Amino acid sequence: MVRRAYRRYYHGLPCNKDATMSKNWSLFLVVAFVLGFALKSYLDLQGKVENEATPPTHSAAMLYGQDEQAVNIFDTEDTRIRVIYFGFTRCPDVCPTSLAMLSGALNELDDATKAKLRPLFISLDPERDDAKLSAQYAHYFHPMIEGLSSSLDVTTELAKRYGVIFRKTELKDSELKYTLDHSSYFYFLQPDGTLITKVPHTLTPAPIVEAIKTITQGN
Fold this sequence. Notes:
- By secondary structure, the chain is an alpha/beta fold.
- The protein has one domain: Glutaredoxin (3-Layer(aba) Sandwich).
- It is built from 7 helices and 9 strands, in the order ααβββααβαβαββββα.
- The N terminus is likely disordered.
- GO terms for molecular function: metal ion binding.
- Belongs to the SCO1/2 family.
- This is Sco1-related protein.
């Protein structure tokens, strides 16, 4: 009997006891896999429902604007869409061009659409751009654009949140002493700070106008 089982095993035909154990083990693996997959699907679904029910929140970002007044740009009682541009007042070309395009876009909109927007210029150079200067600079391009400044820690954290890249570059033999190299985007945000979309640097107001109309159509 032992010899027969031995022969069957080595010819690829396990004995009845081994076959039963193998069958039970396979069944156990199948059941474990099904239960594991079901548990993962349930947890994924719960996480998705929770994420949909609880929108992302952002801590208050306190900046300072005209008359040195503290401004919380994530005040959800203000339901306007934020249109934010990060730059600095001594920017030689990119910032003036971008704010001119934003101004041009605002001038193409009707009053009802403009009432849904809160355009903001946030300085990345608080060392030289205080709240008063930032406000004056922004208003030069359009009276609707608020110019804001804060401490470098606050503006850096805010810039990183939306992927703004900037760095200080020393300027030898220049009265400016340094400049800032920075990315150039218009960031469209919900009142709580959630990013809706962003528009890259442009030489025409058209992409900004298109984004504004797309976002405000349902509002």
